[in-house]
């Protein structure tokens, strides 16, 4: 799940997320994406508001939540040179 919202609503969002996600579910806050001051803060749903406050996240931020942020998620191999697609033959690893 990805949510774009005012950082002042982080605590309320955390409370809503805890109704459907476990407190230890992976989460991330992306603040000022693509700016020189960009921050990517990894946390959990249970520490979302605390993390935003500790890093002085204000204004709007992207909040990402879910297993795709966890260590067990298989990353896409689409751009891996060894991966064969309909458009190119993969190289030997």
The SSE string, one letter per element, is EHEEHE
The CATH topology, please?
Methyltransferase, Cobalt-precorrin-4 Transmethylase, Domain 2
Rounded to the nearest angstrom, the radius of gyration is 17 Å
- Our count of domains comes out at 1
Would you tell me the overall average pLDDT? 91
Residue stretches low in confidence (pLDDT < 50, at least 5 long) are: none
CATH H level: which superfamily? Answer: Tetrapyrrole methylase, C-terminal domain
Strand pairing plus helix content: what structural class?
A: alpha+beta
Q: Helical stretch count?
A: 2
Overall shape: it is elongated
How many distinct beta strands? 4
Q: What top-tier CATH class fits best?
A: Alpha Beta
- Helical residue percent band: 10-25%
Strand order of the largest sheet: 1-4-2-3
Which architecture per CATH? 2-Layer Sandwich
Describe what you observe in this structure:
GO terms for molecular function: methyltransferase activity. This protein is of the alpha+beta class and 93 residues long. The protein has one domain: Tetrapyrrole methylase, C-terminal domain (Methyltransferase, Cobalt-precorrin-4 Transmethylase, Domain 2). 16% of the residues lie in helices and 25% in strands. It is built from 2 helices and 4 strands. Helix 1 (10-17) runs antiparallel to helix 2. The mean pLDDT is 91.
Task: Summarize this structure briefly.
The protein has helices at 10-17, 48-54; strands spanning 2-6, 26-31, 39-44, 60-65. With 93 residues, the chain is an alpha+beta fold.
